[in-house]
Design goal:
It is a single chain. This protein is mostly helical. It has two domains: 87 residues, Winged helix-like DNA-binding domain superfamily/Winged helix DNA-binding domain (Arc Repressor Mutant, subunit A, Orthogonal Bundle); 47 residues. It has seven helices and two strands, in the order ααααββααα. The protein has a two-stranded antiparallel ribbon with strand order 1-2. Helix 3 crosses helix 4. The longest helix is centred in the C-terminal third of the chain and has 29 residues. The radius of gyration is 17 Å and the shape is globular. The model has no long low-confidence stretch (mean pLDDT 83).
Length: 137
């Protein structure tokens, strides 16, 4: 079953669900209990959010004994990116980068904001690399 874009973005309009997606992106597969402890809500509340995210096709799970790890469905995330790129007005055309033309006419404030976003993304990537390297050992 394919979820309509408007439904997907309705699901993502809840801040807690976006936080859950961010955690799964940064840390890989997590159980509801770990997610709850990290974001500070009950496991029952996390389970309800995960159920909605799963119904929308944004996360997937596979039972491993008593533990049910949840992870991002990469195909669904790619679909979200594609949809956003179609309506994006920043000029990046899905690259996540400003066009050179946009950089030239951007204000100092918008460039500093963009720089901060890039630093945050880089920090998240570095954390994920460290975790994956530690898991290999």
């Amino acid at each position: 079953m394919k979820t309509e874009p408007s439904e997907i973005f309705k699901v993502l309009s809840v801040e807690t669900r976006v936080k859950i997606i961010g955690l799964l992106k940064a840390h890989g597969s997590l159980g509801a209990k770990d997610i709850a402890a990290t974001i500070g809500i009950t496991t029952a509340a996390v389970s309800q959010h995960l159920k909605i995210l799963k119904q929308a096709g944004l996360v997937k799970s596979e039972r491993k004994g008593y533990w049910i790890p949840y992870s991002i469905d990469e195909k669904a995330m790619d679909n979200c990116r594609r949809i956003l790129n179609e309506v994006c007005t920043c000029g990046c055309q899905g690259t996540g980068k400003f066009r050179e033309f946009e950089l030239e006419k951007s204000s100092l404030e918008s460039l500093k904001k963009y720089e901060k976003e890039l630093r945050n993304k880089l920090s998240t990537v570095r954390e994920r690399v460290k975790k994956l390297e530690a898991d290999k050992k």
